[in-house]
Amino acid sequence: MQYKLQTIIKISKVLSSEVNKILPPVDVIRECALLAQTNKNIREINIGHTEKGHPIKAYEFGNGKSPVLFYGFPDPGEAIGGTTILSLLRALSEGNKFLSSLDITWHFIPCLNFDDQPNEGKILSNVFRDPNIREVDWCVSNPRSETTALLNYAKTISPLLTLTLHDEYHSGASMPVYVIPTREIQPDTAEQIRACLKSFGFKFNSKYHHKTMGEGFETLANIIVTWGVDKEDYNNSTFKQLTKYGLVAGSELSQQEGITPSVLVAAQIAISLILINSVLI
Question: Residue 212: which domain range?
Answer without folding.
Answer: 5-280
